[in-house]
């Protein structure tokens, strides 16, 4: 099985409607907009946390897919999950 999901779709020319060059331009604009979204959304969250003194969100519970219930964590479990997360290990506790 080949990893075809990693390749970008090449624009196909629709005869008489849109040229291949125009489709390439549209595709590049789509990639720019997607890149802006992936840049702006995390930047807003970091600004809120660093400059406005916001707190990081802590996981409150855990979903059990077998029976569809949600188990709430105790305070000790919340602290343990927070300290053991990879995000906390990389960026610190603030």
Q: Which properties best describe this structure?
A:
94 residues; mainly alpha; two-stranded antiparallel sheet; 2 strands
Written description of the protein model:
It contains 3 helices and 2 strands. It has helices spanning 20-50, 75-84, 86-91; strands at 61-64, 69-72. A two-stranded antiparallel ribbon has the order 1-2. A hairpin with a 4-residue loop joins strand 1 and strand 2 (69-72). The protein is elongated, with a radius of gyration of 22 Å.
Summarize the structure.
With 94 residues, the protein is mainly alpha-helical. It is 50% helix and 9% strand.
Indicate the topology.
Blueprint: H1 20-50, E1 61-64, E2 69-72, H2 75-84, H3 86-91
Antiparallel strand pairs: 1-2
Output the structural class.
mainly alpha
> What is the helix content?
40-55%
Separate helix tally: 3
Radius of gyration: 22 Å
Largest sheet: 2 strands, antiparallel
Uncertain runs: none
Order of helices and strands: HEEHH
Shape: elongated
């Amino acid at each position: 099985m080949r990893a075809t999901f990693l390749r970008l779709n090449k624009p196909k020319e629709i005869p008489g409607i849109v040229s291949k060059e125009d489709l390439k331009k549209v595709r590049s604009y789509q990639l720019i907009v997607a890149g802006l979204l992936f840049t702006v959304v995390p930047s807003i969250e970091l600004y809120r946390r660093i400059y406005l003194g916001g707190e990081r969100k802590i996981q409150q519970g855990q979903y059990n897919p077998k029976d569809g219930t949600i188990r709430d964590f105790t305070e000790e479990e919340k602290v343990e999950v927070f300290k053991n997360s990879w995000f906390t290990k990389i960026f610190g506790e603030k």
